[in-house]
Amino acid sequence: MPEGLNDLIKKLNSLEIQGAKEIATESLKFLRKLAKEKGFGKEFNKTAKRIENTRPTEVVLHNCLEIIKKEKKVETINRLVRRLNQSTKEIAKRGSRLIKSGDKIMTHCHSSEALAIIKQAWEEGKKIKVYATETRPKGQGIKTAKELAKLKIPVELIIDSAVEFFIKEVDIVMVGCDALRKEGVVNKIGTYPMAVIAKEHKKPFFVVGDTLKLDRRKKLIIEERCCREVCMERMKTLEVRNPVFDVTPWKYVKRVVTEKGVMTSGNILRMLK
Fold it and tell me: Are residues 102 and 231 located together in one domain of the fold?
């Protein structure tokens, strides 16, 4: 077993490393070190598969590994890491155009790409305010709220079930994504009801994601996490379920912000063919 693999797996499982881009980037850096030491043989393939299986819903790492299979070079990994970092900058520039000064933005969970857009809009001098859901049960939205508050961006942290209560005050909803599939947008659980509520109140629902999140895999695995994240008490007649993601149908999505441009759901579906 490569040195440090258990530590990486632990960080992925505990969500110390979270978000599709971050999972892919940190995993690629680990695999780059392994490739330099051992090459792209059986140990590399076995290790890559184990890392991928740790977070099976996340498609960015899967797509990167598929590219590496065809181009077994350290420079390929370097190029992919550079691309992931550069694409976030491109997404920020393109997405900020959707935000007007005075806009109030609702977001969910912790998306580095959605946050990059919000930060870009703020740096451009736009007066904005953000509503961030806490995102139970691990509280990734609390991380979002704190990150924005440190930058002096006005932000309100709200409980997940208060989305409808606050949606009336919001101009747009902007969330990240973990995968873009024919069925819809895969993102942190709670995204689907937020999209439904946004549509009911005629608020545009924007999704943000690199085109490496295009998911052409036949099967979608929705991860379920430990029940103790939700309820520590154990009872014989009590079953606790803790799914990580849901799938928002395309009919609720106004636009998708990618590094290649702001696209319609139809554009994305054509790319998935």
Answer: yes
pLDDT digits (tens, 9 = 90+) for 210-241: 999 999 999 999 999 999 999 999 899 999 99
Q: Judge whether 178 counts as a catalytic residue.
A: yes
Residue 66 lies in domain: 5-89
pLDDT at residue number 114: 98
Task: Write down which residue in 89, 112, 135 finishes a domain.
Answer: 89
Of 32, 55, 89, the last residue of a domain is 89
d(CA 175, CA 167): 14
Quick check: is 109 catalytic?
yes
Average confidence (pLDDT) over 133-154: 98
Q: Which of the following is catalytic: 109, 177, 215, 246?
A: 109
Q: Quick one: which H or E segment has residue 179? A: strand 179-181
User: What's the token pair of residue 207?
Assistant: 């999704």
Measured between alpha carbons, how far is 6 from 8 in angstroms, rounded to an integer? 5
Question: Total domain count for the chain?
Answer: 2
Predicted TM-score of the model (pTM): 0.94
Do residues 115 and 184 both lie within one domain?
yes
Q: Which of 103, 178, 210, 215 is catalytic?
A: 178
Neighbouring C-beta atoms of residue 237, cutoff 10 Å: 4
Q: What is the DSSP string of 60-125?
A: HHHHHHHHHHHS--HHHHHHHHHHHHHHHHHHHHHHHTT--TT-EEEE-S--HHHHHHHHHHHHTT
3-state secondary structure of 273: coil
Task: Quote the CA–CA distance of 126 and 95 in Å, as a whole number.
Answer: 13
Nearest to residue 184, comparing CAs of 242, 245, 133, 94? Answer: 245
Same domain? For 177 and 259 the reply is yes
